[in-house]
Design goal:
mainly alpha; 17 helices
Length: 463
């Protein structure tokens, strides 16, 4: 069920009606309603995967209890190791098994040997990378004694399956989201207003900007192109598309959560204003970058073990972050590219206006060449696009392409500058009633104008 579909609109109206009547001022009822609603929401993709969601959640719930009771450290390590192996094993089976089997078979074929490794006919469960990391983060936090285990299954199931952020994040920490299921959710007009503004902003970014840039990106990245300007425009268009698509989802998720009385973490904070690679990752997909920082990079030693080990830790962490996005060599290269750039520019800190400008240009080159690696569908296409990146050929249709790009690019830049100037992630929510209504009305008009009742899938659903 997509946020931008008519089916979700019906679902949410029914859910919110029950939430404010049946569950009013009753934490247990509201938690149960969230669990039931979330599983119904998830079943719209494939009802069979609700059993997978429940199974992995139930296992981590039980392991959390064992970790809380057990005092012997070696046994506690075994319990948390069981959670890690099980969660990552499920993720590997559904997401990576065929990729590694196919890669090994190709290697054997090139070596003149017979293909040996089998492949499995499996469907990738939507959101599995997100809820697996969220559930796994809980058991690790209990192991580290950052949070006490949950003794009630219903709040824990609600935490893992919370439908606003179930399939594309943000990946919430147990220390932030879990306690909110045990407290009375204060819901007032300000939260509802902010939530509604965030939902409309997210839908606007997805439907009006991202979905209209998508054909431009697909047109170029579905073929072999020898024009540097076209590759550049399509890559910038993809950078805008993926930002508006993914941050749009996060805005909608946070908006729905606000209306329900919850507060989710900010997942994007003006990443394209970053002046260093490190700063970019502090602003882009914050829930994932901090997850890898706290559960992978720091346990590996972070930057405390010398220069070369720091480089190793960055490459390993970002390589894993790359493959988290998908079973493909382009994602691995994308992760390693960012790991390498973080290693090279680890100590780079702009100190004045000129160095800030140069730092921003350098960072944007790193980020957008990374998007080229991310979007290409094969190593051959990466090589082709990289070699032709500096070509000066202009196809006959370049002018029309540029005009469409500029229209939606201008809207994107306006939104970004408005946020930057006001220092607000949803600036329209702080306008007076008349201006806020006017802005919302204009956004809703464009959303309805471009809206597809069936909805178009969000990019990060495939990860």
């Amino acid at each position: 069920m997509l946020f931008n579909s008519s089916s979700f609109l019906i679902f949410f109206v029914v859910f919110i009606s029950l939430y404010f009547t049946y569950g009013r001022n009753n934490i247990a009822r509201r938690n149960l309603l969230i669990v039931v609603g979330s599983y119904i929401f998830y079943s719209f993709w494939d009802w069979r995967f609700t059993f997978l969601l429940f199974g992995s959640s139930f296992l981590d719930f039980k392991i959390g209890g064992l970790l809380q009771k057990e005092k012997v450290q070696n046994k506690r390590k075994k319990f948390v190791f069981l959670s890690i192996i099980t969660n990552l094993g499920i993720l590997f089976l559904f997401k990576y098994f065929n990729f590694f089997s196919d890669s090994l078979n190709i290697l054997l074929l090139n070596l003149g040997a017979d293909q040996f490794f089998p492949t499995a006919k499996v469907i990738l469960p939507v959101g599995i990378s997100f809820y697996t990391f969220q559930s796994l983060g809980y058991t690790i936090d209990v192991y580290r004694k950052k949070i006490n285990c949950v003794n009630n299954l219903i709040p824990f199931l609600a935490y893992v399956s919370f439908f606003p952020q179930l399939v594309a994040g943000p990946i919430e920490r147990s220390t932030n989201l879990m306690p909110q299921f045990f407290s009375v959710r204060e819901i007032n007009n300000e939260k509802i207003k902010l939530g509604f503004n965030l939902i409309i902003l997210g839908l606007f970014k997805k439907i009006v900007i991202a979905d209209n840039l998508s054909p431009l990106v697909d047109m170029v990245y579905s073929q072999t192109v020898n024009s540097g300007p076209i590759i550049l425009l399509a890559t910038i268009a993809f950078g805008i598309q993926i930002y508006c698509d993914f941050s749009g989802y996060s805005d909608i998720a946070r908006g729905i959560a606000y209306i329900l009385g919850f507060k989710l973490m900010v997942n994007f904070n003006l990443p394209y204003f970053a002046t260093t690679p490190k700063e970019f990752w502090r602003r882009w997909h914050i829930s994932l970058s901090t997850w890898f920082r706290d559960y992978v990079y720091i346990p590996l030693g972070g930057n405390k073990s010398g220069k070369w080990k720091t480089i190793r830790n960055l490459l390993l962490t970002m390589g894993l972050a790359g493959i988290w996005h998908g079973a493909g060599w382009n994602f691995i290269l994308w992760g390693l590219w960012h790991g390498l750039m973080l290693s090279i520019f680890v100590n780079f800190k702009p100190t004045n206006f000129i160095s800030n400008i140069l730092g921003w240009l350098l960072t944007m080159f790193i980020v957008f060449y990374g998007w080229l690696l991310f979007r290409c569908h094969s190593i051959e296409q990466i090589i082709n696009f990289s070699l032709n990146f500096c070509s000066t050929d202009f196809p006959a249709w370049f002018g029309d392409y540029l005009i469409v790009f500029l229209i939606y690019g201008f809207v994107f830049i306006f939104l970004q500058l408005w946020k930057k100037i006001t220092s607000e992630l949803c600036p329209s929510a702080n306008l007076n009633t008349f201006l806020n209504t006017t802005v919302l009305g204009f956004k809703i008009y464009l959303i309805v104008l471009f809206w597809d009742p069936k909805g178009t899938q969000f990019i990060y659903f495939q990860f």
